[in-house]
Amino acid sequence: MTTPHLTAVGLGPGDPELITLKGLRAIEAASLIFTPRSQDGEQSLALRIAQPWLHPERQQVVELALPMTRNPAQLVTAWQAAADQIAHSLTALGQDNPRGVYLLLGDPLLYGTFTYIWGELAARHPHIGIEIVPGVTSFAAAAARAQFLLSATSDRVAILPASYETDAAELRRLLTDYETVILLKVGPVLPQMLAAVEELGLLDSTLYAERVGMPEELIAVGPEVRLLHHQRRPYLSLLIVRGGREGGMR
């Protein structure tokens, strides 16, 4: 019996050399390369990262349109359409046990859209086998590049989507309970978050990062972060704030 198989591969934040060996083997074994694409027409960053390891002569790229919206109805419709497209494309190959990979930034199970597509695949196409390969997270890569401490000994670390933590009071509460706060997808609320960090006197122990490992990478630490205060930065950017119960450290 033919069993289609899909592997979700976390590519890491941007450097093609940060793809794991297991992820690379899954990519090389696949006939179909599925990659998310926002409906605004921008090139898929995931596809760009994986490009050095793809083989156009024997692999087909299938882009899945996923809207950048919080509208639940639109999102569910898009996830269902993506799941159906994956299932149809794998079946249409006409191969025994066809294999595909779903490429995504960072790690598949950390604030990624794959978790929703995975749910729709399980509900609508349960015959498809699913495997998940973890990826290097953007905050781990950014901290390594900047040699910026994430945690030590018994430090507690909080990881949150920035768009839900946009004021100094909430950030102060978090830094009362955690030595390090990592705020992901910070672009849309960067001015508010930087104002909160400055109000708390923690700018010197803050890291900002975007496009880690790509040619246009930007990493700023301490006073350098202040220069970004009134700039529009990419959605997929992050802040790491060290402070917390013991005052933190760089």
Gist of the model:
The protein has helices spanning 21-29, 45-50, 72-92, 114-124, 138-146, 168-177, 190-199, 223-226; strands at 5-10, 32-38, 60-66, 99-104, 129-133, 157-161, 180-184, 206-210, 218-221, 237-242. The chain is an alpha/beta fold and 250 residues long. α6 (168-177) crosses α7 (190-199).
At CATH's second level, what is the architecture of the largest domain?
3-Layer(aba) Sandwich
**CATH overall fold name of the largest domain:** Cobalt-precorrin-4 Transmethylase, domain 1
**Cα-to-Cα separation, first versus last residue:** 56 Å
Instruction: Please identify the top-level CATH class of the largest domain.
Output: Alpha Beta
Order of helices and strands: EHEHEHEHEHEHEHEEHE
The averaged pLDDT comes out at: 90
- Into which percent range does the helicity of residues fall? 25-40%
Q: List segments where confidence is low: pLDDT < 50 over at least 5 consecutive residues.
A: none
> How many separate structural domains?
2
Order of strands across the main sheet: 3-2-4-1-5
Outline, from the CA principal axes?
Answer: elongated
The description of the largest β-sheet is: 5 strands, parallel
Strand content: 15-25%
Query: What is the number of helices?
Result: 8
What would your notes on this structure say?
This protein has 250 residues and is α/β, with parallel strands linked by helices. The protein folds into two domains: 5-133, Cobalt-precorrin-4 Transmethylase, domain 1; 138-242, 2-Layer Sandwich (Methyltransferase, Cobalt-precorrin-4 Transmethylase, Domain 2), CATH 3.30.950.10. 32% of the residues lie in helices and 22% in strands. The chain has eight helices and ten strands. The strands form two sheets. The protein has a five-stranded parallel sheet, sandwiched between helices. The chain has a five-stranded mixed sheet with strand order 6-7-10-8-9, with helices on both faces. The chain starts with a strand and ends in an 8-residue tail after the last strand.
